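Q: May I have one protein plus its fold?
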Amino acid sequence: LLSRPQNMQCAAVLFALASGAEAFAVAPSLSARVPGIVHRQISALRSTRLTAEIANANRNSGVSAHVYLAPLKMGIATSDSPAAERILSTVPYNSPEIFEKIYDMVIFGGGPTGLTAALSAVAQGRTVVVVDSTPENKIPFSSSVLSGRTGTPITDYSTMTYRATLLDAAMNSKGQGSNWKEVQRTMDDVFAANYDINMAAMAERSIPHVRGAAFLQSNDSENRVWNVNVKGLANAGDGVIKARKVLVTSGSSSIPANNVVYNSEKGVFNGDSIQDLNYFPNTMTIVGNALTALEYAYSFSALGTKVTLIISNRVAFTLALSRANVSPDDCSRLMVQLEDKGVIIMYNDGIASVDASRNPKETPVVIRLDSGNTIETNALVTILGRVANAGSMGLESDAVGVACNTEGSVLIDHNLETTASGVYASGDVVGGPWIPNNGLDQVHSAVVRMFGLETMAVRSMSERQAGFLTKSLNSNGYASKMDEAFPGVVSEEVFIETMTRVVGKYGFNPESSINLVSTCREKICRPFTEKLNSMWGQHFNIASLGGFVFCGRTSFATGMAHARVDNNGKKRYVFWAMPHIAYGIQHIEGKVFRSGRDGPSNACGALITIKGEIANAKVAVGLDPTDTEMSLLRQQVLGRLKYGKVPTLLGITYASHECILEQVRNTARDVINPDTCEYVIISGIQVHGALNKNFIWPGTITMFSGGVETDLTPTYLEDIKDWKLDTWLQTEALAQVQSNSKGGRLSAIFDGIEL
């Protein structure tokens, strides 16, 4: 593409990179401009391998072999083009009959991914319903459906059709962008044409759809169906959809900039609202690090707009280009071509404040930059990337358990299945780049697999999580959420080994010291003491319910009496004390999937009970002689919590850590003679996580010698600095998959994993 004439190559490269759809030949026609819509069939779906597969499946199921979805169309508007007004004037209506059936699959989203999945499922004889949440003032089902085999990642389906149409209009305008109404009509007509084609395709396959917001409520385990509550758009009709599988293709939204209040009527736009631009801007300022920022800069400059492009973070921009396989040389050439089009390019500057305009076409928007410079412009557009539309659908609720990373993208395995069995996700909602090579072909293949492997819908998460975490995106995502909840968390084995090395530097070792340990007595906590005993020998147990320490001075003295006395008459003790919490692969506090169990396990049971008592305002603070440990635990925890707000289980667990640490410090201080004894207190939180593994949040590591406290945290951090949770998770997951592949059940389920 870079070898083509200069006025063509920049546009072609930019759209191919930003869209990741095809190596688009989007050069304008070399012949004279002719009336009517001149459609270039950039990626006619029926000519791809994907369409052939769907057609074959249709024939096998006795359905007509023809499949038509809206290919990417770009052209010039004429009076005989479809009217957007006709579509927008149609009042949304959700037929009550749609809510009376049980479907094989419900799809959240009517974009390219959702429509491709719907046709693929129907081609296999499955029943499907689509829930589309397009606003009432927008044309639904208006996206172009493209198929990949391109080698370029798809990062933004949500605005692809708009960008393609804008680019084509720009290249045909010959700088006459001031006729913005014609450009707008072109876009509306393309959306309307896509709507008509996509609706016809769904009607031909008897694919029902509803307009509104979908909320995934719960799984009916008895009937093995998911319940999806639909709130109809503009009183279109509410109801509950029941389906055996759920596919989330809800797309993404433009990431907002700090210090910016967006208002299309006042000339301030983001990557989504730019589609609402209803006037031609003589000047435009584009701020961003995403590839689409370059594309918009080219398109509007070709229309005749004077464009200023601000790359707010050059390093982030370079990384974005690198992820799209753009070489530094190609990047330099692209930037030169933009400058040749008159685009002013600035680097490493950001928006300090914005003064919007009541009439941006005539009175400019004023932008003050971090550098102190001021820019006046008819339109400000921020293109800072995309964030998944995964919220407000009930996905991360305890009743569902779909895991997302810290950026909000849904985590999926190689079959596009989430951490909730039977719930799948695809497209922008799983983050980008999301499909490295195959475009929508992968969505089609995933639908084939999800209905071909019926066991996938009923197998437990404990059977899936090893294969799930072999994918780097998932191991990174799980690690990011773990580290957000428990900063510095490490695997249990690594924690014990590292702490052993650290305290060993100060004379505390299996030959000189005895361990006094307080972890909960639940079976799920035993791996900690088993590992510790394998390295240090038998410990002395000072634990009570939940890892609390209620044994008192007598028990401490009894345990310490077993310590050796060195040649200097010193005794040494190491205290290990911590509460525990489950935080499994779904990122749900208190829930973890363990081998040998169909459902999740809960921990810590005592702290979960306290959380429920607080939530229900039924907390008994007195001492119950028939439940002494629980009574004491409750009193300790309540004394650490702030009143007026129901705490989270995570908050209660951290409060418990503070209680336990104080118990150990105070009792040790009362019992130990500092002249003849040295000791170390190691505290933390035991976390029951993915892969049937325990992890530790490191709380404190303090040495007491000669009446002086020494914080050993710097020594610990230096020792652990090269350890990475995400790398460890992926390595451990691969090892488990390899082990299970030797005749185990996972070998068939995860046969798509490359080892």
